[in-house]
Design brief:
The two termini are 38 Å apart. β1 and β2 form a beta hairpin. This protein is 0% helix and 11% strand. The protein has no helices and three strands.
Length: 87
């Protein structure tokens, strides 16, 4: 059994660009607004909903956080069953 932490390293490239990435501070006069990505259009109600109760448990001296999902200790929880084509 392997133990340890896995990590991902991300690298992005842009067409016609080379060299190290350079930080450019955003223009302070621009206010970020997530609503520009949304819409006012009415969306249909989903076919079903899942209620989920997630609770972080005390670490009790362990190295990682422990979680309960719907009263079951993660990762030994009952899976949600979904159906293809349903919302």
């Amino acid at each position: 059994m392997k133990t340890g932490i896995r990590a991902w390293a991300w690298s992005f490239e842009y067409a016609g660009r080379t060299g190290e990435a350079q930080w450019k501070a955003p223009d302070k006069s621009v206010v970020w607004d997530y609503t520009v990505f949304g819409t006012q259009a009415k969306v249909p109600e989903p076919d079903g909903k899942f209620e989920m109760n997630v609770m972080m448990m005390p670490d009790e001296g362990q190295a990682f956080n422990r979680w309960m999902v719907n009263g079951q200790m993660w990762p030994k929880v009952d899976p949600y069953v979904v159906k293809a084509g349903k919302r």
